[in-house]
Amino acid sequence: MAHQNNDNKILKLKNFFFQWEWVLVLLFIAINIINASISPYYSNISGLLDATMTFLDKAFIVLPMVFVIILGDIDVSVSSIVALSSVIMAVSYNDLHLPMELAMILCLIVGTLCGLLNGLLIVKFKELSAVIVTVSTQIIYRGIAYIILKDQASGNFPQWFSFLGWGYVGRIPFIIIVFAICAVIFSLLLHKTTFGRYVYAMGNNITASRFSGIQVDKIKIIVFTLTGFMSGVTALFLTSRMGSTRPNIALGYELDVIAMVVLGGVSTSGGKGKMIGAIISAFLIGMLRYGLGLVNLPSQTILVIIGLLLVFSVMIPNVRLTIKKATKQNLAMANDKSD
Amino acid sequence: MRHFLEMKNITKQFNGNVVLKNVNFFADKGQVHAIIGENGAGKTTLMKILAGLFPPDSGDIFINGQRVHINGPKHAQELGIAMIYQECRLFPDLNVTENIFIRREPLKKLKFIKIIDWAKAHKETYKYLDYFGLNINPKTAVSNLSAGQQKFIEIIKALSQNANIIIMDEPTVALTEQETELLFKVIKDLKKLGITVIYISHRVEEIKKIADLVSVIRDGELIVTKDINTTNIHELIKAMSGKEVYDKYPKLKVKTGKNILRVENLSYNDKIKNINFELSEGEILGITGLTDSGKDVLARVLFGIVGPFQGKIYINGKAFKSMDPYTAKINGLCFVSAIDTEEGLISNMPTNVNITITNLQRISTMGFIDNAAESYHARDMIERLEIGCNENDIISILSGGKKKKVIFAKWLFTNSKIFIIDEPSAGIDICSKVDIYNIINELVLSGTAIIMVSSNIEEIIGMCDKILVMYNGEIRKVLDREHATEQKILYYASGGKDD
Amino acid sequence: MFAIERLNKIKEILLKEKRVDVIELSQLFSVTEVTIRRDLDKLEKEGFAIKTYGGAVLNENIFQQSSSFEYEEKDNIEENKMIGKIAAEMVEDNEAIYLSPGRACFELTRHLKSKNLTVVTNDLAIAYELKNKPGLKVIVTGGTLIHSTTTLVGEFTLQTLNGIYINKAFINVKGVDFDAGYTLGSKEEIMIIEKIREISKEFIIMADYTKFNRTSFAKLGNLTMAKKIITNKQVPPEYKKFFFEKGIKLYTTFEFK
Fold this sequence. Notes:
The complex is a heterotrimer of chains A (339), B (499) and C (257).
Chain A: H1 2-17, H2 20-38, H3 45-53, H4 56-70, H5 78-94, H6 100-124, H7 130-149, H8 163-166, E1 168-169, E2 172-173, H9 174-192, H10 194-204, H11 206-211, H12 216-242, H13 253-263, H14 275-294, H15 299-338
Helix pairs in contact in A: 2-14, 4-9, 4-12, 4-13, 4-14, 5-6, 5-7, 5-12, 6-7, 6-12, 9-10, 13-14
Chain B: E1 5-14, E2 17-27, E3 32-36, H1 43-50, E4 58-63, E5 66-68, H2 73-78, E6 81-84, H3 96-100, E7 107-110, E8 113-116, H4 118-131, H5 147-160, E9 165-169, H6 177-192, E10 196-201, H7 204-210, E11 213-218, E12 221-227, H8 233-241, E13 259-268, E14 272-280, E15 284-289, H9 295-302, E16 310-315, E17 318-320, H10 325-330, E18 333-336, H11 351-356, E19 364-365, E20 368-369, H12 371-384, H13 400-412, E21 418-422, H14 430-445, E22 449-453, H15 457-463, E23 466-471, E24 474-480, H16 486-493
Parallel strand pairs in B: 3-10, 3-11, 6-9, 9-10, 15-22, 15-23, 18-21, 21-22
Antiparallel strand pairs in B: 1-2, 1-4, 4-5, 7-8, 11-12, 13-14, 13-16, 16-17, 19-20, 23-24
Helix pairs in contact in B: 5-6, 8-16, 13-14
Chain C: H1 3-17, E1 19-21, H2 22-29, H3 33-46, E2 49-52, E3 55-58, H4 61-66, H5 77-90, E4 96-99, H6 103-111, E5 117-121, H7 124-129, E6 136-140, E7 144-145, E8 152-153, H8 155-161, E9 166-172, E10 175-177, E11 181-184, H9 187-199, E12 200-206, E13 218-221, E14 228-232, H10 237-245, E15 249-253
Parallel strand pairs in C: 4-5, 4-9, 5-6, 9-12, 12-14, 14-15
Antiparallel strand pairs in C: 1-3, 2-3, 7-8, 10-11, 11-13
């Protein structure tokens, strides 16, 4: 019995270390070492913290996107939601002369409503997949942003607004603090609450979830609405960093976000993955981009590298599965013999 | 006298189970020979042997007096044998003509190249359609045709391949009444052409209309072959059921309490029509019928899986005009799924998660799951139901019996008051079966009401207080436990009516 | 978890451990200590427990009060209680039943709900237990008392059984085994049961799961002699299979509430 317990402990330890997240951590460290070795500006702490500010805005969307992808769905309209809520905020401040605080709240509301609409459409038209629905709304939301602002920029925000994107609390950038809080909340939501449990259940087997009396439609709507809301949050920080907004703001963000989530070990077939993986991979891709930028690599090349990383990450779980199967078979054979 | 088709002493085993025992079967040209028998009696296996899907272990097949060794479906086709399966085997996106002439399209020479002569093919197709009086455009995609029309296309396809023996496996299953009539007309036309039709069916009623000869297969043996004019439905059903039902089910008759569920004029999409019944606490209601009788749909309408429905469902006196699984659950209903479906369990998640998923509120505070409470309850359920697994075991490694018990556990965890149990014992070992029946006993003892949906007639008679026999979406007959026999149920389930 | 479940769980623990601790219980059920104390108050009112500092102990008196007789298989009280409960459900109004000596039959008497019953028994404990049940006719056979038990046997017993007719006979057995069949403790008891078998319409065997794969002194008959048998869920699987395949109704107890 004691022997078995021991075995279990070893197994648990093994399981703990044989996780995708550790691969990500190693990769992350490797990238930082490489970055540090090629650029002398890289290796001080404040430089590193500043670097995170360049990509953390989109990391906000990574958090709810993990839920979306665990559900087995996808939301490609997030970048357009960022654009639309950002543009509406700018217009309501500059043209409608609303107080900035109100404009910011409006920004979040618009994001939330866009997400809600996505959710409702996906639930209502079950024959359409989430990708089709969000591709359509992606075009619609950005289209509206263009209609509102034409092809111009809108800025002139009050001075204090730039604090969101550029400000520090002590020596730590404000955005990092907000992100850390959000990351904790979303991690708890996914891994500790009934809501997170329902999301995993639905991602693994939607039929059985329905037959268990889970309100699958409601959960789905909430997840997409959350995604909309967090896109609104991204709009706030991004607009603050940029100082002004344009209808083409955040173009292509959805691909970065999805890449971060998938590289984070969240399976696109649903039901699997951890929040921490996605968060690490958000930093990983962010740092990689930053580092490659430091050595003046053209952005197209950076895209290729990130693409390769993605392919690699999608491939790895399959390889792992094969290895697992093989070891299992060996174990089974060994057991047979010992019997 | 030699028959056109003869199958002699056919025996077939699968993994040591004898499926066919020395079966002798024959048929003549221009004759419709029906084969009837219960699910798993061996009728489809016999015909699959004829269609070349697998060889017999022993026995001979003669066609036109000549001994043949059918060594594959293609060979069977060359011998003029065609089988039309229950499920459609056409390409849905191709049109009628393309389907009929697939891989043997008529070609015409155009200078240097050969191209498909579609005009000729359409003309040929049209000829067939015309012969049978079918109003179908040869250029329509098959996916736009009704199930009945697709059947006709398959028949024509067989004919165009020069088939002279056509086997139809339950052809009327998905057909409307008009289509069934039309199919019978087509079969009569086939007879005129001298084609041998072998007609497999559960539905004794329709055999009377169409067959010349009827053979009854039971437990792998051909019991009797009769001329349709010298037999009657009761005799056939008696031959089909044959064996005495062992009274081995641990039925516990408890005093029923107050009415808990009432269904009024329930209809859904023509799949169930005008269903009325009542259910009391402590009562076990059986719903049985053939595969497409609507019993499965009825269960799913009650639990809100499919809808919307017409009519009303009353739970504890409260009227519902629509239903969804969540509402059903919080009003005390539950659905114990069959284990061979995706419906019951999340197979790649552990047992404890599957047990608690129906009532996470019970193990959480403010939305946060208490893992200790979850383990405690899961272990408790596993022990109470004698499931014999670890709470962390992934569902997919469990045996059928254990899976079924986990499904029971997850609904016991919500304290459901009405259990809809889909195929209680299908696919599980005998020990688990005995356990399941006794779990059902324990449930009715505590005042739970049970709806047992099953195609296992023995079990229905053995465990239920009242039995609804369904046919074609309707309740054909309500039988008491005292009056139910396997023969009666088979009679009504295959479309029989009270005289 | 609902309050009722918690109460029942506490009862179970009390029965097993004889004492409970407030702090342990509050951790086990994730509720406050106040809640647990309230639960214990309830149990004290029911007469089930006696509160102590920091917990409660089982009120052993309730068991002693109910019967001054003892059975040897006291270890399986819970199992036999459940068997008795199932058996009681089989008894219908206006029937004459026979209860053989043994714990399961004893427990059966507590669950009897049917009206206008006649109970025949050769067990003094069962007769005593039924003394206050209204609407019941209890017939105790005469006979010789087997030493240090409550069982009556012998020629007098057999004579009493002459000329009466019984609808359902519930028989406690001491051993159930493929080879030895159903077995009981003494030849005298076998004689009584054989007589009962002659005069009864239905013959129902009761044995808790510990009796399986066990043999007692005297053989009553083969496993196929009864058409119904009541036992617990823990019964060895090969028996479940055997009875089902032989067309014998095997009732097993599960406990949900």
